[in-house]
Amino acid sequence: MGPSDIPSGDVFVGRVDEVGELSAALASARAGTGRAVLITGDAGVGKTRLAQHAGSQARDVLVLTGTCLPLATLNVPLLPLRMVVRRSLGTDPAEEFDGWLAERCAERPVALVVDDLQWADQATLDVLMWVVAGLPARRLALLMTVRRGEVGPGHPLARWLSDVRRLPGFTELALGPLDLEETRAQLRGLLGDEPHDTLVREVHGRTGGNAYLNELLVTGLPPTATSLDEGLLPDTLVSAVLRPWHQLSPPARELSRVVAVGGRVARGQALEDAFRLAGVDEPGPLLRECVDAGVLDAVDGDGYWFHHPLQAEALEASLSHPERQQLHASYAQALQSRLSPTAPDLDSLVLVADHLHRADDAEAAYTWACRAAAAAEDGQAWASLVRMLRRMIEVRTLVQQPSETPTDLWSRLRVAAERDGDLDTELDATEALLDDGDLGPLDEAELVVRRQHLRFMKGLGFFDRGELARATQLSAAEPGSWQHAFALAESAHAGLWANDPDAPALAAEALTRARTTSHPRALAYALAANAMHAVYLSHVADAEAWGAEAVACAVRSGDGFAFGHAAMWEANSVGGNADPRWTARVAGRRQQLIELGLPHPYIAWLATGEAQGQLQRGEWRTCQSLLRYALGRTPGALVDVAARLRAAQLAAFQGRVREAEGHLARADELFGETSTFLPFEFDATRAMVRIAAGDARGCVTAALVGTSNPGVPPTQCEWLMPLAARGLADLAEACRDALEDPQPVLDELDELERRFPHPIADAGGGEFYDRELAGFDALYAAERARARLEPDRADAWVRAAESLRDLLPWEECYASWRLAEALFDQGTARRTEAVAALRRAHRLGRQLAAQPVLDQVTALARTARVPVADPVLPSAVSGATAAGTDRVGDAAHLTGREREVLAHIVAGRTYGEIARELVLSEKTVSSHVSHLLTKTGTANRIDLARWATRRARP
Length: 954
Hints:
Helices cover about 65% and strands about 5% of the residues. Strand 3, helix 5 (about 120-135) and strand 4 (about 140-145) form a beta-alpha-beta unit. The relative contact order is 0.04.
């Protein structure tokens, strides 16, 4: 392994295609046809780890690893092959090594990993050529890695590659950098916890997704870090990114440092500036030297920029402060001399302002930032406008005669940030304007309401009814203004969430006043509030019509928040988010937002809503894709939390408990209010995650939190009672397994049923939602029957599975497993039904990748000797092995022989098979089983196997 190719953390998340390519090579090797794969990529992207990971996942494969090293003074021929055979090779190394390798391949499939081939000596390359030529008749996967940018023209490996590419079985795999979510997964492994989103984005932006550089940047950070440490880059990181730079000639090093200070792709006149400032007369050879060394990349054929973003940062930092100032001033002067006096381009204006700022010339930096801001405003380049206005605010106090007042600058910045979707900057500007005290009452009322929207999107709190009432009072002096209708509408909106009886009348008044003003923004919010109330009343036609009109008004006003708000209530008019019509409606509005070009946070808001619908319908791959899209850019805490809650549910359903807990922790970190923030499903999600973690008591506690708030119930309230009952049923089962009295738990269940005889229903609904509620009601009843061991519990699970069928696939899968379990408890009388339920649970589990249920189904099928199609390997927690029965035996005071019999029962063996294996009579085996049933309190051998499986689970 090369010295800078040792990333840690999970760098394989998302590398599905790459892992698949290597797995295919190993599969081919198993089948007797060898393959060779050359993995290319930058130092640190994880080439070696990927190759070794592929080998380690194939446990029937012998993995042999050799590494080439960049030795300067030593000459060790065949070094990586010596590492593999652990001895010297004779006078004919190709034949000797090939023969030794043939023997290994005859014993079992082999994965030969040769790392950092760019440093291989010619003898090693010759032997590997010999090996590749013999691949077709050998059980061998040859996995080689080579660093990008280190094999230029004339390099021995270049000639070798031109020859070996013609041989059969040879392929190449280019490994690129990690994307944002892959970086997040790696940092999760490095930090031992879910990383903060701002940290992930900062790391990815600075390293370009290089796994090794990611590791160096976060070394020493606590898991709770929200950003990188300020100050100089770590010495280890500087050393890593500048390693190829130190190999350049002095003139090439100087040229690259000047290019770094330029701050952008060097092409055309900008490249000429770099040559002049570096004192270079013949730049061609120096540029080729930088490219061949992997310091610079050719961009679009005529430009050059650094291969790693951190290289430019490190090189500029290596200059003294006076050197940097002088270079920035010189770049600014050169750019100014070439700008068109009538139509200067925006990028050049921004770059001049940046160079002057970094040259510490505040007066000139302010002047040029003003010019750049004007050009950005004309061209609606909102991100550039935000940056230049922030610059003007930053340096204004250093300027003798600034051209604009602070209020003017903050006002312009607020509008630009709103158009750009920069929630942080817009809230900063809004707060500054409200603190300034120089606003009229109508403008102040508008900003007070807008501040509530921004705080909502940023996860700083739910709508403050007191603040909204203040906005209404501020605008009441002009009751015909659109601002007054706007304030009334949002006061009604917040009141409806709080179940305020006065809110419907307030919504009606807001709509009347908004129609009088004809102002599209006021109309959008007033219509949305009335659509919300109509949903609560189940007035579907009114809700749908008002929602659609609200969306149209939001389009006219260009208000992204109004669009998202209206679109969600329009969708709610047709049913819950498991209803295909709801999902289709949200998907259509999301696409419309994209076509309108409105800011990403509002598109992401709808994407996470759509993801929830897809998740509930079992379309988990589409859900994952939508969540990744939503989080692909900074969406604001509201969307981030919503995405985390959806991701936590999916991970819990599929058995990735640590990941689910990490997402939930991230959501808690982002958002102070949890259960009290009604649009979020914190309580249901927390209960799902706790039950997935085997924490039945935690599940009950989390589910009951959602019942403690008066007024409108929280999102996904329908799940709370079935989840609480499931947790209590698991607790009762655990008491019986431990031969303890379950009555205290059953008393809790009685009290729960007294308080909540049926699941909690959300406001609104429709035919589809009514079917959902019926399914949850049946599931709730079945869990109660399981807890109490009611004689007709199998029939309760029949009703639950049928009610959930083709409606809520995750819950149907779970109910089908429980149904099979209950039917098998009744012996042979209902075995046919049990087998059908078990196979349906297995089929659904495979479709959903619901590993926890699949594990239980597989264990039950093995014990009941029921073949299921396409069997899957159970995870580590499923199936009590002999070691597992040792762990559970103590609790039931089992003898050694009873433990042995129990292990065979769990494995699904018959009495005859057990008797032959243990050299006992079948009668003795039957006697042992009877004792086991008595000691464990189980009903039959299938129930006994389930008991052992549960007790063996960590």
